[in-house]
From TrEMBL:
Belongs to the MnmA/TRMU family. The gene is mnmA. Catalyzes the 2-thiolation of uridine at the wobble position (U34) of tRNA, leading to the formation of s(2)U34. One of its GO terms (molecular function) is ATP binding. It is found in: Cytoplasm. This is tRNA-specific 2-thiouridylase MnmA. ATP binds at residues 6-13, 32, 125. It is an enzyme of class 2 (transferase). The record marks 126, 337 as: Interaction with tRNA. It catalyses: S-sulfanyl-L-cysteinyl-[protein] + uridine(34) in tRNA + AH2 + ATP = 2-thiouridine(34) in tRNA + L-cysteinyl-[protein] + A + AMP + diphosphate + H(+). Gene3D superfamilies: Adenine nucleotide alpha hydrolases-like domains, HUPs, Translation factors. Residues 280-353 form the tRNA-specific 2-thiouridylase MnmA-like C-terminal domain. It comes from Kribbella turkmenica. GO terms for biological process: tRNA wobble position uridine thiolation.
Length: 364
């Protein structure tokens, strides 16, 4: 099988490529150049698309003994990931750029190009598992290492994309992956994991957004509309945020306040107590199903953040909308985030949160 191995320059993608080659596949490594201006790439290991990363990926390909290329996808990445990130924050939403990158770049642009070049599949270093069923369906499942599981950001993949995808690390704990990289002589064996948003050079997300959106001063208010302070732009806040509010006033119970709502139209940020964060249900749109679209009401688990806990829900699908009701109220659910549905370890699909229903509002 001809396999295109996406090599970020990190230890995970290097070991994934090595495993595919060792399994006898015809493997070609490719590194994605995602920055319009290489001089703006980060130094060190803060992101996943630095100049140093491309060099690390090339060295790994040489050790593995596979051909290696660099693909320039900077324009596609900027349009589908960076601009989407900025516009979502401008609308008062909280996007996940890694999820959007997987959907629009790694498993759309890259996979489409790979298939056009007569490759059979794309392999990445994501921590997730694919299970082939007797009826020919490829299921996406959680990785065996819960601390590294990345199935949440892969919940946007369709059945057709999964049929052309390999995740060779899904059954291996991260510690064993590093040990394997060392045994294989890969210089990235001890390279730190990337954690930050790769296109924000200094890790300062509010500063990045201010640069692109400018300052738009407004008020910080409580749920009753009482002014508590001022801000320089709603894009500097996310629902559930506690730190950096600079209002110096606790909630009625004497405890810290949290961001409850963000309204860019009137430039208002609403804050309240932790109890006021509680959400009973949500509505999401733009569903992406990993397998057949569900036709019946689902009693399953949902994950609301990349490393969040699973919560029990009832989900109902109506056309392009997914209605989710929580068995028990949950907190810090932000429009723009993804809700990913699970049946055990199997990923059912993903949708983008549009609106939430708060418990406090229902009892007001």
């Amino acid at each position: 099988m001809r396999v295109l191995a996406a090599m970020s320059g990190g230890v995970d993608s290097a070991v994934a490529a090595a495993r595919m080659a060792e399994a006898g596949h015809d493997v070609v490594g490719v590194h994605l150049a995602l920055s319009r201006n290489p001089q703006s790439y980060r130094s060190g290991a803060r992101g996943c698309c630095t100049i140093e990363d491309s060099r690390d990926a090339r060295r790994a390909a040489d050790v593995i003994g596979i051909p290696f290329y660099v693909w320039d996808l900077a324009e596609r990445f900027h349009a589908d990931v960076v601009e989407d990130f900025v516009s979502e924050y401008a609308a008062g939403r909280t996007p996940n750029p890694c999820l959007r990158c997987n959907e629009k770049v790694k498993f759309s642009a890259v996979l489409d190009r790979a298939l056009a070049l007569d490759f059979d599949a794309v392999a990445t270093g994501h921590y997730a598992r694919i299970v082939d069923t007797a009826d020919g369906v490829r299921e996406l499942h959680r990785a065996v290492d819960p601390a590294k599981d990345q199935s949440y950001v892969l919940g946007v993949l369709t059945q057709e994309q999964l049929k052309h995808a390999f995740f060779p690390l899904g059954d291996t704990p991260k510690t064993e992956v590093r040990a394997e990289a060392e045994r294989r002589g890969l210089s990235v064996a001890a390279k730190p994991d990337s954690h930050d948003i790769c296109f924000i050079a200094d890790g300062n997300t509010p500063g990045f957004l201010s640069k692109h959106l400018g300052e738009a001063p407004g008020d910080i208010v409580d749920a009753q509309g009482n002014k508590l302070g001022e801000h320089q732009g709603t894009h500097g806040f996310t629902v559930g945020q506690r730190k950096g509010l600079k209002i110096g006033t606790p909630a009625a119970d004497g405890k810290p306040r949290f961001v409850l709502d963000i309204s860019p139209v009137d430039r208002t940020v609403t804050v309240g107590s932790r109890a006021e964060l509680a959400v009973s249900s949500l509505t999401a749109s733009k569903p992406r199903w990993c397998g057949p679209e569900p036709r019946e009401e689902l009693h399953v688990k949902a994950q609301l953040r990349a490393h969040g806990e699973q919560v029990a829900v009832t989900a109902r699908i109506e056309g392009d909308q997914v209605h989710v009701r929580f068995d028990e109220p949950t907190s810090a659910v932000a429009p723009g985030q993804a809700v990913v549905l699970y049946d055990g370890t199997r990923v059912i699909g993903s949708a983008t949160i549009d609106t939430v229903s708060r418990v406090a509002a229902q009892h007001a």
